[in-house]
Amino acid sequence: MEAILLDMKLKLYIQENKDQFERSLINQAVNVREKINDILNYGDIDLINNAHKLVSYVLENKEQKLRDFAKQEGIAWATYSLTLAFKLEWVQAIRRTIWNFIEEYNRVSREETTDYFFQLEKQINNHVDQFLNTFFIEYSTYKDSLLSAQRELVENLSVPIIPISSTICILPLIGSIDSFRMNVLEEKVLMEIGRLGMQTLIIDLSGIADMESEVIHHLMKTINGTSMMGCHSVLTGLRSEVVRKMIHLNITFDKDTETYGTLQHALNVYLSK
Description:
The radius of gyration is 31 Å and the shape is rod-shaped. With 273 residues, it is of the alpha/beta class. It contains eleven helices and five strands; from the N terminus they run αααααααββαβαβαβα. It starts with a helix and ends with a helix.
């Protein structure tokens, strides 16, 4: 009961000296103080008010609210890609400021807190550490999910399979194709054949100026894989540079693979069937 009473007295003392607490906190956070307004404007994160909220949860021993607040903060900082070093410096500045105010409270109140000091030290430091741990875990988890979603978006954009009928799809490829993109292409094509019930895949290569030898070999294996899954492959827009490489590599298409000079030609043939 005495410990709870002291916690409330400390909280009240900080509230009564709010302006002094904020000045002390800002002085402690040397690198962050110039970024407070930027973080507020960019991420709508009010560091000053959040500091008061953290102090309140720590002194009132509200562990669940502290964890929930840390998760909320972790997601916010990950969403806006804010610098982790600023967060660490800010929270450590809050910790130091709390202890400075405890020291000041003892001086002005002349209240003996020696017996309670070790319990108070454990409570404050454990709660601040708990906040930081939960914050960093949530930040990392949410950041990983964002990166995963962004990677999936990039992969989908790099392999855009477009259905034009219930059985026919187009795969227009543009830009450069490296081994990583070829692996993504193989996985996406084979997966979509099964999911869409695709019977014909028209692969338009008119947007590909050149391909490395290993990429050409991989493309041929992917075409063979589509055939194994019962899907007919049609290639359009092969550039002369790619064809020459295929000739020198002694690569030929199997008898079931069709080629057309342009995508429009292939569409005219297949949509008229």
